[in-house]
Amino acid sequence: MSAAIILLFLILMFLGVPIATSLGLASVIVMATKSTLPLNMAAQSMFTAMNSFIMVAVPLFILCGSLMDEGGIADRIYDLAEALVGWIYGGLGHVSVVVNMLFAGMSGSSVAAIASIGKMSINALEKKGYPKDYATAINLSGSMLASVIPPSILMINAAATGNVSIGQALLAGLIPGIIIGIIFMVYNYFYCRRHGIGDRVKFSGKKLGKAFVRAIPALLTPIILLGGVYTGVYTPTEGAAIAVVYTMIVSVYVFKTLKWTDMPRIIIKNARSTGTILFVAIAAKPASVLFEIDGLPSRVAQGIAGISDNRIVILFVLYAFLIVVGMFMDATAAIFILVPILLPACQAVGVSPLFFTVFLVITLSFGLITPPVGVCLYAAENVTGLPLERIIKASIPWILLIAISLCIFILFPQIIEAPVALVFGT
After folding, report:
1. Cα dist. 297→113, 303, 335 in Å?
2. Whose CB has fewer CB within 10 Å in the chain, the N or C terminal residue?
């Protein structure tokens, strides 16, 4: 059954059928023809997938990010990042990285990051003499951090699918995201030194203080969102709802960039985006049920264990596999399909579910900035007007930096697991 689902899924995708429809249709066909399960089991499993309080957090996080994007928060975050690191050699390049990291802590969406912060940052870099290819590449790569640094929508999906604490998974993504950002900044420093580019602004404590005060309402969003989750005051879903209400109030009454009459339009726009993600989750559930009945997770576990009993070797094999998957499949779809299959196999060789969740999300995030299905890559093309080939070529060094970062996380898993153990005492 598993082989039939995968084959049908690939054929339908090759024919141009949308991913969610391909997966759901393949599962229903196999359930009807190759299993003894009643066909209404497909509908029942789909309903079960959506009858989840945790999954409500996804549309709320997306809505919160969209409100911040349209509410003018990006401008204040950019000014703060410039005052904070704009004085270092390669100044605006560092600003691009930091502003993506800050925006990642608010939006949770890489596409939103490249479309809002990325567009603003690329224009600023180009005006200061940075090559447009380089400006695009650093912002494209920086946008990936929104899928790693909390509140990452992909991390929520992966944690929910793997039955891992969402609060712990979000926290576990924070340090790796910061480390990748620092590596980006180090590369930017040496690149600008070597090529003689990198306009700097004079450091001013007064300017930094002013930018910080202007950005306080925006900076409170991730604190409200995640602070209550980590302290146990409310769940991630409740935190997302509180953050949405807070962002609405700030945008309307503090920044005065939105009106209450804008809310229906924004909500409808985000309902469409949310529908796409949740449709994939619904369609993946019958496939997961059939995979489980067919014993695919245990077979994969045995196959992986047959390769080696060394945890590091297994993770490097998994690393190569996930990069290929991420390049050709939507990250959300890959999460819902692969987590039930691969998690038991990784646990069998001593990989913790928490590490697996974070590692999976970071690795699949490669696919956001690489061809042929990289949604952020195409968003960057639309924002800049540059040919896709030029953007890809300019992004290669940054992709290699991410690849090196993941090797570090494999060799030193404490980077991911230690902060969670410190905060949650696990």
Report:
1. 35, 10, 14
2. C
